[in-house]
Structures are given as C-alpha cells and as structure tokens.
Amino acid sequence: MKAASLTASLLAARRNAAPSAARPPGETSGTVQFLPKPPRERERAGEDTIRVSLRMRSERHLRLRLAAAHLGRSNHALMLAAVDHYIDHILPPLMAGHCACLERGRMPTGSCTAFGFGRTRPDQPQ
C-alpha cells in the first residue's frame, strides 16, 4: 500500500490552523460501549475469616490464572476449592484415621494434638 504524499494543500499556517470538525469538549469521535462486568464470587470478610498469604513462582501463578479463567472463577475461589478438595479427599487416606478432626464437617476439639500447632493456646501459659 502506498502512502499519500504530503502536499502544500494539506498544510495550514500556524495562525490559521483549526480542528477539522468542531466537537463539544468531552465528546469522543467513536462509539464506546462499556460492557457490564460479570458478578464476582466474593466471600465477605467476617470475624471468622482469616487472611492467608501464599508465595509462588510466576509460572505457577500463570497456570493458576489460566485455570481460573478457563473455569470462569476467580483465583481466590479456585484456591479455596483446591484446599477444600485436598483436605476432604487427599488428606484423610494419608492420615489413615489418625485424626477425626479432619473428617468433613467436624470442628477440631481440644483433644486434637495438632489443634494448637504453630500458636499458643489461650489456656496455656506463654
């Protein structure tokens, strides 16, 4: 494709230059249509919600984002589903019934040896 040549008829003197079409301020020349965003899956943070941080390499993060996009879910929702699946289906056979607290729907009791792992219990002196 050949470009048009620049001729003197296309040039204007600096004092006589004007826009080619007068438009009101703020009006655009093209049509812009904003599409509504789909509703996001969000869990409202309550008193029983704990923030967890996870570090991962960029390659793994890209795979997470791609998987979430293919499933139409957020990264957060996909990570929660993965943790729930692991705890409900993968961990029980590995534990071989050593911890009833890991059974689906049960809350840990004070008799669980792992209940206070990583933090001090309120009833224990520090």
N-to-C series of helices and strands:
HH
Helix percent band:
25-40%
Average pLDDT level: 75
Annotation field: number of helices: 2
Radius of gyration: 30 Å
Annotation, overall tally of beta strands = 0
Task: Measure the end-to-end span.
Answer: 80 Å
β-strand amount: under 5%
Assembly type of the shown chains?
A: single chain
The biggest sheet, with number of strands, parallel, antiparallel or mixed sense and barrel status, is: none
Low-pLDDT segments, ≥5 res: none
Structural category is mainly alpha
Query: What is the 3D form?
Result: elongated
Structure, described:
The chain is mostly helical and 126 residues long. The protein has a domain at 75-109. It is 28% helix and 0% strand. The chain contains 2 helices and no strands. The protein has helices at 58-71, 75-95. Helix 1 (58-71) packs across helix 2. The longest helix is centred in the C-terminal third of the chain and has 21 residues, at 75-95. The protein is elongated and about 90 Å long. The N and C termini lie far apart (80 Å).
SSE order and pairing:
Blueprint: H1 58-71, H2 75-95
Helix pairs in contact: 1-2
Any descriptors?
elongated, mainly alpha, 126 residues, 2 helices, 0% strand, 28% helix
Tell me briefly what this model is.
By secondary structure, the protein is mainly α.
